[in-house]
């Protein structure tokens, strides 16, 4: 049972909330991973201090059971692997818990990411942050799933 609404971005952006910064854009693009669409964050202009202090993001609040264990799964795509390409960070309830670097798995294809967690409050916020150190650069996420660690 996936607790994330529109985790495959097949219905546009809603209910995800984007947080853009100067010289960046976001869009729903095709093709996605194993579906028609994916979320794409693109650095289109010069890199500023804002890129690191207040990165671009996308987030959603989930209704969870406090004290229960869950698993967040998602797929990432980086257009290239360079030392300054950057990474996708995951914040759970506003605390950083995971990051996938552009060179962790290589560029040019979607890769799996898994983050276990225990819910401490409900609603519980899931946020992806895009820390990009060069321009142009494109990062995609798709197939976002949060489900109980032990199926009901």
Shape: globular
Q: Number of helical runs?
A: 1
Enumerate the strands of the largest sheet in spatial order, edge to edge or round the barrel: 1-4-9-6-7
User: How large is the radius of gyration?
Assistant: 15 Å
Helix content: under 10%
Structural class: mainly beta
Distance, first to last CA: 9 Å
Description:
- The chain has 152 residues and is mainly beta.
- A 5-stranded antiparallel beta sheet has the order 1-4-9-6-7, with no helix packed on it. Strands 2-3-10-5-8 form a 5-stranded antiparallel beta sheet, with no helix packed on it.
Characteristics of this structure?
3% helix; mainly beta; five-stranded antiparallel sheet; 152 residues
Could you give a short description of this structure?
This protein is mostly beta strands and 152 residues long. It contains 1 helix and 10 strands. The longest helix is centred in the middle third of the chain and has 4 residues, at 50-53.
